[in-house]
Structures are given as structure tokens and as C-alpha cells.
């Protein structure tokens, strides 16, 4: 629609989530083998009901089968790599509707390794078995790689500069600049291209032919495929860089009450960042996003003791038509034609359409790109969620019809916001001696921060 910001299609959204799940921080050492780590998104009725990744012992498809069982029937599965025959036969048997995969190196790697020709031959045999299973199954095994809408990449690049995390870090730097973000983004692009895109086009064509995708090896199909893959990787890297690893910035509890209760212990920083990147990514579907996870003693092997509960984003009520409700924002003077009173908030959608119940005995956590408003804070607490991870720029503010006053007063829920731990430990330390040189003070402060990070 004219005047509307560009959005990610759901197909591309699920595809990007599968790539991101492949990057889930490992909770155990991954064995270096021919089997590539794989991310998987389980979708039912156009809603995500599971996010999984491979572990040292199990493939992503195997973990999904263990977790969902017969509930996989009529689901759509999005893989970050074409699944191996072991996974495919079980998934097909479960009655899935469609299996989509990223068209690069498959789960059983087809990359040529001169040092181990036996492995390459095994990979080719597995690829043939996969094609045979594909031909004889009712499930559609296919590529679903849509081109991004016009100006989508540019829109993501521009908006990441304005997100809470980048702005909060930039304000602490001398000169108030975002150069660190540009450097982080370039590193992410390089990393993701090496992982998800085969640099040698001849090798890529050879792998596609072995995977049964000969038709895509001819131009303009091949060049279009490569461009679509590059655009998605660029978008993913840009979003990932918006929650950067910079200095000692991370998610730290901003509450005055400290407790050793397991429900209030913070996540490792790399996992908190990963989940917040998911939140940032889904925000480009529309507006704002919430993602819920729970920690349990027995759940998803690929993500350790974490499993996905639900997600949501700002939207009008299900079934409503585009013109049913106002679309004016807070700049509109007439309050009667503002959209705020009609929008279902991300937190409300996630709680309504969650795929599992929130168990009171387990540590549930929520990741929100912006501070929860006064309308949603009571819902979060009432649902029994134990932790909130959030950028807190709007805390204590009132914007048009939306108020963010209750978040700061919320009790009984641990609130983790992006902060620089460097300053926290520096001010807790006793004042340095006047006889200490500036270099000695800086060195001691740096040592203290690194030791407590």
C-alpha cells in the first residue's frame, strides 16, 4: 500500500528464522563432522510453533520429531539446509505438509574435501536417497525463497540506527557516533556469507545439480537465486548487528532486589542477544515483537534447556480487513481516528496464540524490542512470566495514547535491560588513590570489568 513501510513476507521471515536458529549459541561442543548444524522452524496454520537447532547428538529434524511427535501432521517445516535422508524419512512419515530448505550446502555436506573422498561419496549417496524420498512422498519438498519487497534492505539499514540498543551504546561514546555499528555489520555480513552462501558459483551449481535442482543452474534463474540469497543474508546481518557485542554492554537486571532464585537468574549474554535478535527480526514483519521462551530440565536438546512458547507482533484483530480500522498514528490530532485503541499489541498476540502453556514451576522469559506499555505489563505478570528482556528507552514516558509508567514499578518479575557493566563495577569500586596514574586507573578498571563480565 502507498505510504506504508515495507514488510517481510512470512515466507522470508520463516526462512530467516531458520538461518538464525542455526546460529543459536551452542550449549555443548559441536563435533566437527560432515553433518552441518541446521536450524528449523515449525509452522502450523501460518504460526510458528517451534524453533529448533541441531545438537551434538541429534539433527534438528530428529529434535522436532521428539518434541512434537504426531503434532507435526499438516505442519510446514523451514530448514536452513536440505535435511538428510535420516531426518526426511521420519518427517515425511509424520505427515508434514511442506518442507522448505535454504538452497546451499545440505545437512550432509556436499562440499568437496580432497582429504576425505569417502565422505564426499557418502554425501552423494545420501542426496540421491533424499531425492527418492522426495519423489515418493506426499509432502512437498521445495524451495520457498521470495525476493524482498522494494527498499526493504534500505529500510532495515536506516531503522537499525534508531533502535534502542544502538542509541544507548552510542550515547556513552565520545562524539556520539555509530561507527561501531558499521564495523559490526560488516563483520556479520562476512561471517554469514561464508556460512550460508557458497562463494564459488561453479561449486554452487554442482551442489544444486546433485540435490536435484538442475533447472536452477541456468540463467537467469541461477543469478536471481544468488541475488535473493545475498539480499536475505544482508538483511539478517543488518538485524543481528543492531544488537551488537560491544565492550561490556549486555542485558543486566535493573531491579533493586537481588535474589538467588533460579527463576530470576539471568541468561548467558550470547543467548539473550540471540533471542533479542529474533525479536528485532520479527519486528520487520510489522512494528513490534515479542518472543517467549521457557527453561526446563527436559526439552529441546538443540537449545539446551530452552524451548519456544510463542511469539507475536502488533496487528489488527484476526479476520479484520485492511480498511476496517484507522491507520493514523500519534501525529493525528483527532484521537478518535488514531489506531492505538484498535491494535493488538505484540505481548497480547503472543500470550493469546502461544503454542504451549506457561508452566509456573519453570523459568519463562519474554524478549520485547521496546518497553512493554501499561496495558501489557499486568498481562505479563499475570501470565506468570518470570523475566523480561527489553530495551528500556521508553521507560517512564507517555507518548500520545500510550503510557510506559508501570514497567518501572513492576515487582515480582526480573527486568533485564541493555546496560554497560563497565560503569556498574567502576562505581562500585572504591575511589582510586590520588597517587595512581591515569593509565594505572584505567588498567585496574578494565581488569575488574573483565573479571566480572
Automatic annotation (TrEMBL):
Keywords: Hydrolase, Metal-binding, Repeat, Signal, Zinc. Its cofactor is Zn(2+). Pfam families: dCMP_cyt_deam_1 (PF00383). The keyword Coiled coil does not apply. This is Cytidine and dCMP deaminase domain-containing protein 1. GO terms for molecular function: cytidine deaminase activity; dCMP deaminase activity; importin-alpha family protein binding; protein homodimerization activity; zinc ion binding. One of its GO terms (cellular component) is cytoplasm. Residues 15-118, 270-404 form the CMP/dCMP-type deaminase domain. It catalyses: 2'-deoxycytidine + H2O + H(+) = 2'-deoxyuridine + NH4(+); cytidine + H2O + H(+) = uridine + NH4(+). Belongs to the cytidine and deoxycytidylate deaminase family. GO terms for biological process: DNA cytosine deamination. PANTHER family: CYTIDINE AND DCMP DEAMINASE DOMAIN-CONTAINING PROTEIN 1, DEOXYCYTIDYLATE DEAMINASE-RELATED. Residues 1-29 form the signal peptide. Its EC number is 3.5.4.5. It is an enzyme of class 3 (hydrolase).
Amino acid at each position: 500500500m502507498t505510504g506504508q513501510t515495507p514488510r517481510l513476507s512470512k515466507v522470508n521471515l520463516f526462512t530467516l528464522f531458520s538461518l538464525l536458529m542455526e546460529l543459536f549459541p551452542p550449549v555443548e561442543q559441536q563435533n566437527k563432522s560432515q553433518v552441518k548444524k541446521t536450524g528449523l522452524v515449525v509452522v502450523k496454520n501460518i504460526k510458528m510453533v517451534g524453533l529448533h537447532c541441531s545438537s551434538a547428538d541429534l539433527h534438528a529434524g530428529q529434535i522436532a520429531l521428539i518434541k512434537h511427535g504426531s503434532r507435526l501432521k499438516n505442519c510446514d517445516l523451514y530448514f536452513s539446509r536440505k535435511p538428510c535422508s535420516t531426518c526426511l524419512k521420519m518427517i515425511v512419515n509424520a505427515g508434514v505438509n511442506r518442507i522448505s530448505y535454504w538452497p546451499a550446502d545440505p545437512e550432509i555436506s556436499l562440499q568437496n574435501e580432497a582429504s576425505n573422498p569417502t565422505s564426499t561419496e557418502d554425501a552423494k549417496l545420501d542426496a540421491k536417497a533424499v531425492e527418492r524420498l522426495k519423489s515418493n512422498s506426499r509432502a512437498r519438498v521445495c524451495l520457498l525463497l521470495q525476493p524482498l519487497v522494494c527498499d526493504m534492505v534500505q529500510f532495515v539499514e536506516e531503522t537499525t540506527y534508531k533502535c534502542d540498543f544502538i542509541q544507548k551504546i552510542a550515547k556513552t561514546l565520545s562524539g556520539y557516533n555509530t561507527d561501531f555499528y558499521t564495523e559490526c555489520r560488516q563483520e556479520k555480513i562476512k561471517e554469514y556469507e561464508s556460512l550460508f552462501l557458497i562463494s564459488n558459483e561453479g561449486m554452487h551449481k554442482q551442489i544444486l545439480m546433485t540435490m536435484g535442482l538442475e533447472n536452477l543452474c541456468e540463467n537467469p534463474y541461477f543469478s536471481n537465486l544468488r541475488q535473493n540469497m545475498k539480499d536475505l543474508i544482508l538483511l539478517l546481518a543488518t538485524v543481528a548487528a543492531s544488537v551488537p557485542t560491544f565492550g561490556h554492554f549486555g542485558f543486566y537486571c535493573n531491579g533493586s532486589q537481588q535474589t538467588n532464585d533460579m527463576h530470576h537468574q539471568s541468561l548467558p549474554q550470547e543467548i539473550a542477544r540471540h533471542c533479542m535478535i529474533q525479536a528485532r527480526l520479527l519486528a520487520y514483519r510489522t512494528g513490534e515483537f515479542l518472543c517467549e521462551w521457557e527453561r526446563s530440565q527436559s526439552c529441546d536438546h538443540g537449545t539446551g534447556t530452552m524451548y519456544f512458547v510463542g511469539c507475536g507482533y502488533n496487528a489488527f484483530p484476526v479476520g479484520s480487513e485492511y480498511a476496517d480500522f484507522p491507520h493514523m498514528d500519534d501525529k493525528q490530532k483527532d484521537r478518535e481516528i488514531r489506531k492505538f485503541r484498535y491494535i493488538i499489541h505484540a505481548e497480547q498476540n503472543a500470550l493469546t496464540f502461544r503454542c504451549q502453556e506457561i508452566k509456573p514451576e519453570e523459568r519463562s522469559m519474554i524478549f520485547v524490542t521496546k518497553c512493554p506499555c501499561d496495558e501489557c505489563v499486568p498481562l505479563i505478570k499475570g501470565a506468570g512470566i518470570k523475566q523480561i528482556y527489553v530495551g528500556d528507552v521508553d521507560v517512564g514516558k507517555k507518548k500520545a495514547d500510550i503510557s510506559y509508567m508501570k514497567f518501572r514499578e513492576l515487582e515480582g518479575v526480573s527486568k533485564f535491560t541493555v546496560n554497560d557493566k563497565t560503569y556498574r563495577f567502576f562505581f562500585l569500586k572504591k575511589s582510586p588513590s590520588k597517587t595512581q596514574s591515569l593509565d594505572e586507573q584505567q588498567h585496574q578498571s578494565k581488569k575488574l570489568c573483565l573479571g566480572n563480565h
